[in-house]
Amino acid sequence: MAIERVKVLGLTGVMDALRELPPEVISRRGGVIRPALRKGGAVILAQAQENVQRIVDEENLDGRFVSTGLAKKSLKIKRTRPLGGANGEAFIVAVQRAKYAGRTIARKGRKVAELRANDVLFMLEAGTERRRPMPWMRPAFEAKPDQALAVFVDETHKGLERVRKKLERIAAAKAKQP
Questions:
Q1: What is the Cα–Cα distance from 43 to 46, expressed in whole angstroms?
Q2: Whole-angstrom distance, CA of residue 91 vs CA of residue 79
Q3: Is pTM beyond 0.85 here?
Q4: What is the 3 state secondary structure string of 136-158?
Q5: Over the stretch 120-170, which tens digit does the pLDDT of each residue have?
Q6: Measured in Å, how far apart are the chain's first and last C-alpha atoms?
Q7: Which DSSP string corresponds to 65-101?
Q8: 105-109: Cβ within 8 A, 24+ apart
Q9: Can you tell me whether residue 105 is helix, strand or coil?
Q10: CB 93, CB 75: distance < 8 Å
Q11: CB within 8 A of 130, min separation 6: which ones?
Protein backbone atom coordinates (compact mmCIF):
# COMPACT_ATOMS: atom_id res chain seq x y z
CA MET A 1 0.00 0.00 0.00
CA ALA A 2 1.12 3.52 -0.65
CA ILE A 3 2.32 5.82 2.07
CA GLU A 4 0.90 9.31 2.07
CA ARG A 5 2.61 12.24 3.73
CA VAL A 6 0.75 15.36 4.69
CA LYS A 7 2.76 18.52 5.16
CA VAL A 8 0.91 21.07 7.25
CA LEU A 9 1.46 24.64 6.10
CA GLY A 10 0.11 27.86 7.55
CA LEU A 11 0.65 26.97 11.21
CA THR A 12 3.57 29.34 11.71
CA GLY A 13 1.94 30.84 14.81
CA VAL A 14 1.51 27.41 16.36
CA MET A 15 5.06 26.37 15.52
CA ASP A 16 6.44 29.61 16.96
CA ALA A 17 4.42 29.07 20.14
CA LEU A 18 5.75 25.51 20.42
CA ARG A 19 9.34 26.70 20.05
CA GLU A 20 8.86 29.24 22.85
CA LEU A 21 7.59 26.69 25.34
CA PRO A 22 9.92 25.62 28.13
CA PRO A 23 11.70 22.27 27.69
CA GLU A 24 9.69 20.59 30.44
CA VAL A 25 6.49 21.15 28.47
CA ILE A 26 7.72 19.70 25.17
CA SER A 27 8.61 16.24 26.30
CA ARG A 28 9.94 13.16 24.56
CA ARG A 29 6.40 11.85 24.69
CA GLY A 30 5.18 14.32 22.10
CA GLY A 31 3.90 17.19 24.22
CA VAL A 32 0.71 18.71 22.87
CA ILE A 33 1.31 17.47 19.31
CA ARG A 34 1.02 13.75 20.02
CA PRO A 35 -2.59 13.70 21.27
CA ALA A 36 -3.61 16.18 18.56
CA LEU A 37 -2.16 13.95 15.83
CA ARG A 38 -3.87 10.89 17.33
CA LYS A 39 -7.26 12.65 17.30
CA GLY A 40 -6.71 13.77 13.70
CA GLY A 41 -5.85 10.19 12.79
CA ALA A 42 -9.02 9.00 14.53
CA VAL A 43 -11.03 10.85 11.87
CA ILE A 44 -9.33 8.81 9.13
CA LEU A 45 -9.68 5.61 11.19
CA ALA A 46 -13.43 6.12 11.62
CA GLN A 47 -13.87 6.62 7.87
CA ALA A 48 -11.75 3.52 7.12
CA GLN A 49 -13.88 1.43 9.51
CA GLU A 50 -17.03 2.78 7.88
CA ASN A 51 -15.68 1.85 4.43
CA VAL A 52 -14.80 -1.69 5.56
CA GLN A 53 -18.26 -2.12 7.10
CA ARG A 54 -19.89 -0.92 3.87
CA ILE A 55 -17.91 -3.51 1.87
CA VAL A 56 -18.68 -6.30 4.35
CA ASP A 57 -22.39 -5.47 4.32
CA GLU A 58 -22.60 -6.06 0.55
CA GLU A 59 -24.15 -9.35 -0.50
CA ASN A 60 -21.58 -11.92 -1.55
CA LEU A 61 -22.18 -14.14 -4.54
CA ASP A 62 -22.56 -17.52 -2.94
CA GLY A 63 -23.60 -16.40 0.55
CA ARG A 64 -21.24 -18.79 2.33
CA PHE A 65 -19.05 -16.11 3.92
CA VAL A 66 -20.42 -14.37 6.99
CA SER A 67 -18.67 -11.42 8.55
CA THR A 68 -17.20 -11.91 12.02
CA GLY A 69 -16.36 -8.21 12.35
CA LEU A 70 -12.68 -9.03 12.90
CA ALA A 71 -11.43 -6.98 9.94
CA LYS A 72 -13.14 -3.81 11.14
CA LYS A 73 -12.05 -4.36 14.76
CA SER A 74 -8.44 -4.92 13.73
CA LEU A 75 -8.04 -1.38 12.36
CA LYS A 76 -6.11 0.75 14.88
CA ILE A 77 -4.12 3.96 15.10
CA LYS A 78 -0.46 3.22 15.70
CA ARG A 79 2.32 5.55 16.72
CA THR A 80 5.38 5.17 14.52
CA ARG A 81 8.60 6.93 13.67
CA PRO A 82 8.47 9.64 11.02
CA LEU A 83 9.74 8.67 7.58
CA GLY A 84 13.25 9.51 6.53
CA GLY A 85 14.64 9.57 10.06
CA ALA A 86 13.07 12.97 10.76
CA ASN A 87 12.33 14.11 14.29
CA GLY A 88 8.75 14.50 15.38
CA GLU A 89 5.60 12.47 15.74
CA ALA A 90 3.82 10.18 13.29
CA PHE A 91 0.70 8.06 13.47
CA ILE A 92 -0.66 5.59 10.95
CA VAL A 93 -3.88 3.67 10.52
CA ALA A 94 -2.66 0.08 10.77
CA VAL A 95 -4.15 -3.41 10.70
CA GLN A 96 -3.46 -5.67 13.65
CA ARG A 97 -2.52 -9.20 12.66
CA ALA A 98 -5.57 -10.81 14.25
CA LYS A 99 -6.23 -14.43 13.25
CA TYR A 100 -9.47 -15.88 11.93
CA ALA A 101 -10.12 -19.02 13.97
CA GLY A 102 -9.97 -22.18 11.89
CA ARG A 103 -9.38 -20.42 8.56
CA THR A 104 -6.33 -20.86 6.34
CA ILE A 105 -4.94 -19.32 3.19
CA ALA A 106 -2.66 -20.80 0.53
CA ARG A 107 0.30 -18.62 -0.35
CA LYS A 108 2.53 -18.97 -3.40
CA GLY A 109 5.66 -20.97 -2.65
CA ARG A 110 4.77 -21.53 1.00
CA LYS A 111 2.77 -23.88 3.11
CA VAL A 112 -0.79 -23.11 4.08
CA ALA A 113 -0.92 -20.34 6.69
CA GLU A 114 -3.55 -19.05 9.08
CA LEU A 115 -5.82 -16.39 7.63
CA ARG A 116 -5.29 -13.00 9.25
CA ALA A 117 -7.21 -9.74 9.15
CA ASN A 118 -4.38 -7.98 7.33
CA ASP A 119 -4.58 -10.62 4.56
CA VAL A 120 -8.31 -10.06 4.11
CA LEU A 121 -8.05 -6.27 4.13
CA PHE A 122 -5.16 -6.29 1.65
CA MET A 123 -7.15 -8.57 -0.68
CA LEU A 124 -10.09 -6.17 -0.46
CA GLU A 125 -7.92 -3.11 -1.14
CA ALA A 126 -5.88 -4.54 -4.02
CA GLY A 127 -8.15 -7.26 -5.35
CA THR A 128 -7.22 -10.84 -6.27
CA GLU A 129 -7.38 -13.03 -9.36
CA ARG A 130 -11.00 -13.82 -8.51
CA ARG A 131 -12.17 -10.56 -6.95
CA ARG A 132 -12.15 -6.98 -8.12
CA PRO A 133 -10.42 -4.38 -5.90
CA MET A 134 -12.69 -2.83 -3.28
CA PRO A 135 -10.52 -0.04 -1.85
CA TRP A 136 -11.29 1.08 1.68
CA MET A 137 -8.12 2.86 2.92
CA ARG A 138 -7.34 5.24 0.08
CA PRO A 139 -10.95 6.49 -0.09
CA ALA A 140 -10.89 7.01 3.69
CA PHE A 141 -7.78 9.14 3.42
CA GLU A 142 -9.11 11.09 0.45
CA ALA A 143 -12.54 11.66 2.03
CA LYS A 144 -11.47 13.35 5.26
CA PRO A 145 -8.09 15.13 5.00
CA ASP A 146 -9.54 18.59 5.68
CA GLN A 147 -11.56 17.40 8.66
CA ALA A 148 -8.56 15.51 10.10
CA LEU A 149 -6.36 18.58 9.69
CA ALA A 150 -8.99 20.80 11.31
CA VAL A 151 -9.19 18.43 14.30
CA PHE A 152 -5.39 18.43 14.55
CA VAL A 153 -5.18 22.24 14.51
CA ASP A 154 -8.05 22.62 16.99
CA GLU A 155 -6.60 20.06 19.42
CA THR A 156 -3.14 21.65 19.14
CA HIS A 157 -4.59 25.05 20.05
CA LYS A 158 -6.49 23.52 22.98
CA GLY A 159 -3.32 21.77 24.18
CA LEU A 160 -1.30 24.97 23.97
CA GLU A 161 -3.98 26.81 25.93
CA ARG A 162 -3.90 24.14 28.66
CA VAL A 163 -0.11 24.42 28.86
CA ARG A 164 -0.30 28.21 29.03
CA LYS A 165 -2.78 28.06 31.92
CA LYS A 166 -0.65 25.50 33.72
CA LEU A 167 2.45 27.68 33.42
CA GLU A 168 0.49 30.70 34.68
CA ARG A 169 -0.64 28.72 37.74
CA ILE A 170 2.96 27.64 38.41
CA ALA A 171 4.23 31.21 38.05
CA ALA A 172 1.47 32.51 40.34
CA ALA A 173 2.30 29.89 42.96
CA LYS A 174 6.00 30.80 42.82
CA ALA A 175 5.16 34.50 43.13
CA LYS A 176 3.16 33.83 46.34
CA GLN A 177 6.07 32.04 48.01
CA PRO A 178 8.30 34.34 50.16
A1: 5
A2: 4
A3: no
A4: CHHHHHHHCHHHHHHHHHHHHHH
A5: 888 888 888 877 888 999 999 999 889 999 999 899 889 888 888 888 888
A6: 61
A7: ----SHHHHTEEEEEEPPGGG-SS-EEEEEE--PEEE
A8: none
A9: strand
A10: yes
A11: none
